[in-house]
């Protein structure tokens, strides 16, 4: 059984503040070990449940966070940026299951380090009218490839969010949100146990559903495709994003586009965030 792990950082054990996961910062150096520990805990659980191949895809910032020499040798690591599917690179390599480690809630929602791609520039993303976290959009992409989400780890609010877009996934809450930059955190010796148990349970449950023919297979996109609505924190960003063909400005702060598949919709979202980032100005945002 092949498992893909998408490893973000804001939802990792012990991470609560921007510096904790900002590449180059001393706290980031420290927390790389904790993130690697969360991933290793998941690898142990998946291996116990029969996983024979585990690919870990780096999904945070410049996607060079995990410590390769400390990674469980039952896994391999996809490091670096400019991957066609970004956080979800590897979903097209026929994994049997996918796990979201170190995830977080979306922009505008409560939760530790809540955001969607950009720290503050994007204030809300809606997909077909519903607020969408990175977890929701990545789960929709996984659905399109017929790959079930079996594990989600992050703070308690991320795990609650996951119940809506990955109802069969096991979850492990490694911290309890107090506000956007603070949480009650479990030490890694305890969070690792929770993650390992959830990984084992999530993959075992999938095998059980597969044995009785209860797995879903690829989900066809809705007939009208997916409609993204992306809101920004400054009024020059929506016009900039609307330079992209098919992306329309619908109010001073918001753009909207519709594409037939999540594959196309998520890639367009990446383009929208990159154009917006290029237009952000240091003083006024
Ligand atoms: Zn993220």
Automatic annotation (TrEMBL):
CDD domains: DAP_dppA_1. Gene3D superfamilies: Dipeptide transport protein. It comes from the Bacteria. This is M55 family metallopeptidase. It comes from Streptacidiphilus cavernicola.
